[in-house]
Amino acid sequence: MRRVAVFGATGSIGASTLDVIARHPDRFRATALTANDKVDELVALCVRHRPDIAVVADASRYAALRDALAGAGLHTEARAGSEALVELAGSDACDTVVAAIVGAAGLPSTLAAARAGKRLLLANKEAIVVAGALLVEAVAANGAELLPIDSEHNAIFQCLPGPAIHGAARPGVRRIVLTASGGPFRGRTRAQLAEVSPDEACAHPKWRMGRKISVDSATLMNKGLEVIEAHWLFGAAADAIDVVVHPQSIVHSLVEYADGSMLAQLGNPDMRTALAYGLAWPDRIDAGVAPLDLAALARLDFEAPDRAAFPCLDLAYRALREGGGAATVLNAANEVAVSAFLQGRLGFLGIATVLAAALDALHGARADSLDALLALDAEARRVATTLLRSP
Ligand SMILES: NC(=O)C1=CN([C@@H]2O[C@H](COP(=O)(O)OP(=O)(O)OC[C@H]3O[C@@H](n4cnc5c(N)ncnc54)[C@H](OP(=O)(O)O)[C@@H]3O)[C@@H](O)[C@H]2O)C=CC1
Ligand SMILES: CC(=O)[C@@H](O)[C@H](O)COP(=O)(O)O
Ligand SMILES: [Mn+2]
Q1: Is the peptide bond before 282 cis (omega within 30 degrees of 0)?
Q2: What does the pLDDT read at residue 171?
Q3: 3-class DSSP string for 66-102
């Protein structure tokens, strides 16, 4: 029986994870659930899944969580604070950690799970963008099992040869091709993007996701973050990672081999496939996802991304090639800019402007330890916040 801690249980990935777990009570038990501050949603999940532990990151919500759990007649232990998340990830309460907190806030608990040698289902792409080297080293040094959950990386993982050695180049692999839906604004010019609203940006054509990743998909920064994620997961250089727009989101990514073969993983756009794969690996189990009807689909389309209308993609390549702390800076500035956009304080086109200026301002920054990375993240947020005020 796998004992699974779901970090970010109240989110979109959390819901999909708990759906798969509930389909297999013989194989999995959700022993711990976490949220940021949504106590009512977390307690409702506890009523349904009966975990041993529930954690809210926001320490001021501790009493509310404790009282609500008791009020619901549950024996689930209430915990709170960011330290409680780190402690849980490394503890005996779980052997499997689903890292589904959004943003760099998920990094400390994700790294703690790797350091404790857990099976780590990584949805929280910002953690590996911010701390790729540290995370991959921690996985290798502590015998952790890193299962990529991001749909593209899960697809690549399924298409790569041999045992999974993260960060190691694979002989015979020539190129990794990430597919991108193109987001809700595919086909628009820059001028047509100037006035788009947060709700329009969050209306993803194929996936129902949290608002931060939805905006990232709309700017193509999601694909940029995924390029950096692929570099760390699969040991591929920037020149060996390509992006192709595929609006149907049926081909989840491809691996090109030296002999001209391309292997792809296909499926309906439903994260339960990747989550079931990661939970049961190397077995295959029912995820509740319908098989593809290829004849009904009839066609699959591919096109090059519009790099001029969506400059965030190339900003991510720039950060990857620059190395050092550039990806940490890019991610932090992006979190600040996306949050400002969602609050109506920054226009859609301003997101890329802030990112480029933050990369310029902190060019050459380096950070190797967790503390140094968190300090650089904080500095980049400070710089990006200043840039919001002087566009
Ligand atoms: N959704 C998807 O299909 C996919 C998501 N991902 C990645 O997975 C991660 C989660 O995405 P998604 O589920 O869409 O996001 P959601 O916004 O739906 O959920 C985010 C979760 O993180 C919690 N959270 C937010 N801030 C903090 C914090 N500071 N400390 C601790 N917990 C926090 C939220 O708690 P609360 O509810 O209390 O606010 C919630 O449980 C992201 O990194 C995303 O890029 C990757 C591929 C696909
Ligand atoms: C489901 C998933 O993995 C998302 O990251 C998805 O890829 C977003 O779609 P885009 O291809 O539009 O970024
Ligand atoms: Mn993805």
Answers
A1: yes
A2: 82
A3: HHHHHHCCCCCEEEECHHHHHHHHCCCCCCEEEECCC
Number of domains in the chain: 1
Q: What is the spatial distance between Cα 220 and Cα 183, in angstroms, rounded to a whole number? A: 7
pTM of the shown model: 0.98
Tell which residue, 148, 125, 99, 109, has the closest CA to residue 278: 148
Residues touching ligand 1 (Cβ under 6 Å) are 8-14, 35-38, 41, 57, 100-102, 105, 123-126, 150, 207, 209-210, 213, 271
Q: Is residue 162's pLDDT more than 60?
A: yes
Q: CA-CA distance, 260 to 343, in Å (whole number)?
A: 47
Task: Give the range of the structural domain holding residue 107, as residue numbers without chain letter.
Answer: 2-148
Helix (H) or strand (E) segment spanning residue 3: strand 2-7
CATH of residue 143: 3.40.50.720
β partners of residue 176: 241, 255
Place of tokens 């389309």: 301
* CB 145 within 8 Å of CB 120: yes
CA gap 35, 14 in Å, rounded: 10
- CB neighbours (10 Å) of residue 353? 16
Indicate if the alpha-carbon torsion angle 52, 123, 58, 207 is positive or negative: negative
Q: Does the C-beta of 222 come closer than 6 Å to ligand 2?
A: yes
CA distance 269 to 252: 8
Beta-bridge partners for 175: 256
- ipTM rounded to 2 decimals: 0.99
> Which residue minimizes the CA distance to atom 19 of ligand 1?
11
Residue 163 pLDDT level (bands cut at 50, 70, 90)? low
**Would strands 251-257 and 96-99 be described as parallel, antiparallel, or unpaired?**
unpaired
| Closest approach atom of ligand 1 to CA 14 | 13
- Say whether 218 sits in a helix, a strand or coil: helix
Q: Which residues contact 287 (CB under 8 A, 6 or more apart)?
A: 20, 23, 270, 272, 273, 275, 276, 277
In a domain, 241, yes or no: no
Does 150 sit in the ligand 2 pocket, CB within 6 Å? Answer: yes
Which helix (H) or strand (E) covers residue 336, if one does? helix 326-342
Q: Which atom of ligand 1 is nearest to the CA of 211?
A: 17
Q: How confident is the model at residue 170 (pLDDT cuts 50, 70, 90)?
A: confident
Looking at the domain assignment, is residue 6 inside a domain? yes
Give the tokens for residue 43: 């307690």
Q: Is residue 83 part of a domain?
A: yes
